[in-house]
Amino acid sequence: MTGLGAIGALFHNRNGTASVEFAVIGSIFLALLLFTLYLGFRLYAQVALDYATGRAARLLSVDSTQSRSRDGCRQRWPRRRA
Question: What is the tens place of the pLDDT at every residue in 43-63?
Answer without folding.
Answer: 999 999 999 999 988 888 886
